[in-house]
Structure to design on (348 residues):
C-alpha cells in the first residue's frame, strides 16, 4: 500500500499553481492543500476535475483529496506559525504532516504591474519571508521556491548586448541590478533559500522560469492575448513597443516536468533556469499565430507601452548536464495548442 502524502501549494489558483495542483492530484496517493486569495487566480470550481465534497465561506474540498482555502497566503502562514494543526482544526480535513511545499504565492500582473505599481510588488518580500520562517520551523520534506528570470541583471538583456543567461550570471558576491522590485524580491527569496538550506537543513529547490505560457492562461498574459487577437484576425495588429523585443517562451507542462525532476535532485537552494534556451520576438509570435489564422496583418507598434528589458533568454546547458532535461514541447506545437484554445473561447 502506497503512503498518502499531503502537499501544500501557495498561490494554487494562479497559472503555474493550478497546473501544479492538477499534476499532483494526478497521482492517486496524493492530497493537496492549496491557498489563494483569488486576486488574479481562478476559482477551482472552474477547473478542478474532482467532485466537490464540502464547502464553506472560505474553503472548498474536492473528493476529500484537495482542500482549497480562499485566503491570503501571508495570513495563513502566520496562523500556521501559531498552530501547526491549523488546517485540520479549522476545516473538515484529515491529514498527515505536510510533505512538499510549492510556494507560488506572489504579487504578479505582468509588465504593467511591475512597472506601474512597484511598491505593491515589493510585498513579495513579506510573503517570502513569512513562508521561509514557517518552513525552517515546521521542516517540510522539501520546498520549492520559484524565483524568476527577472532576477538576472538587466544590463545583460539590452538590445545591443543580450546573451543567453547562465545561472552563474547571478553572484551574491558581485551583484548586478535585477528587474525592478519584482526582480529584487525574487533575488532576496533566493538568498533566503540558501540560508534555509545551509543554516537550517531545509531541502530547497529554486527555479528561474522564463516566459511560461499555456492554453489555460488568461488574457492578461501576452501569448493568449496575441492568440485571441489573431483568431479574430485583427488588422492592423497592435504590439507593445516595437515588437522586436524577445523572450524565452516555454510551455507550462515542460515547466512542471522540470520542477518535479529538480526537486528530486537539488536540495541546497541552487537555482536553475527553465526555458527553451531560444530567443523569440513578439513579432515572431504574432507571425506564428497569424499563420494559423491564415492571414498577414500590418504590425502597429505601440511605443508608449511598458516593454521591460529588450531580450531575455536562457542558457540551459547547466540543467541539461545536471538533470539531463530538455523541454519537449516546441514553440510551434505549444502555440498551436494556445491558438486552438482561443478558437474554442471565441465559439462559446
Amino acid at each position: 500500500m502506497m503512503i498518502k502524502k499531503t502537499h501544500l501549494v501557495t498561490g494554487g489558483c494562479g497559472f503555474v499553481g493550478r497546473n501544479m495542483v492538477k499534476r499532483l492530484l494526478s497521482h492517486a496517493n496524493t492530497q493537496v492543500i492549496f491557498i489563494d486569495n483569488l486576486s488574479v487566480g481562478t476559482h477551482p470550481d472552474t477547473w478542478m476535475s474532482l467532485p466537490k465534497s464540502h464547502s464553506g465561506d472560505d474553503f472548498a474540498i474536492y473528493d476529500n483529496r484537495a482542500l482549497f482555502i480562499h485566503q491570503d497566503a501571508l495570513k495563513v502562514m502566520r496562523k500556521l506559525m501559531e498552530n501547526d494543526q491549523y488546517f485540520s482544526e479549522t476545516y473538515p480535513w484529515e491529514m498527515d504532516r505536510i510533505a512538499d511545499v510549492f510556494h507560488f504565492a506572489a504579487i504578479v500582473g505582468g509588465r504593467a504591474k511591475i512597472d506601474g505599481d512597484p511598491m505593491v510588488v515589493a510585498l513579495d518580500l513579506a510573503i517570502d519571508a513569512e513562508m521561509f520562517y514557517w518552513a525552517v520551523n515546521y521542516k517540510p520534506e522539501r520546498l520549492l521556491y520559484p524565483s524568476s528570470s527577472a532576477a538576472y541583471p538587466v544590463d545583460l538583456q539590452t538590445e545591443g548586448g543580450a546573451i543567453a543567461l547562465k545561472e552563474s550570471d547571478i553572484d551574491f558576491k558581485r551583484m548586478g541590478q535585477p528587474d525592478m522590485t519584482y526582480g529584487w524580491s525574487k533575488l532576496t527569496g533566493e538568498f533566503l533559500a540558501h540560508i534555509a538550506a545551509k543554516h537550517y537543513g531545509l531541502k530547497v529547490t529554486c527555479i528561474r522560469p522564463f516566459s511560461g505560457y499555456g492554453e489555460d492562461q488568461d488574457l492578461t498574459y501576452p501569448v493568449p492575448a496575441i492568440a485571441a487577437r489573431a483568431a479574430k484576425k485583427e488588422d492592423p495588429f497592435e504590439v507593445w513597443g516595437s515588437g522586436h523585443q524577445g523572450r524565452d517562451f516555454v510551455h507550462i507542462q515542460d515547466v512542471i516536468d522540470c520542477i518535479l525532476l529538480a526537486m528530486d535532485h537539488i536540495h541546497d537552494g541552487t537555482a536553475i533556469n527553465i526555458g527553451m534556451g531560444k530567443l523569440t520576438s513578439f513579432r515572431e509570435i504574432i507571425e506564428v499565430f497569424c499563420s494559423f489564422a491564415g492571414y498577414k496583418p500590418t504590425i502597429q507598434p505601440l511605443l508608449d507601452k511598458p516593454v521591460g528589458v529588450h531580450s531575455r533568454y536562457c542558457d540551459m546547458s547547466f540543467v541539461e548536464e545536471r538533470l539531463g532535461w530538455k523541454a519537449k514541447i516546441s514553440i510551434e506545437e505549444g502555440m498551436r495548442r494556445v491558438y486552438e484554445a482561443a478558437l474554442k473561447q471565441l465559439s462559446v
User: Anything to note?
Assistant: The mean pLDDT is 93. The longest strand covers residues 268-274.
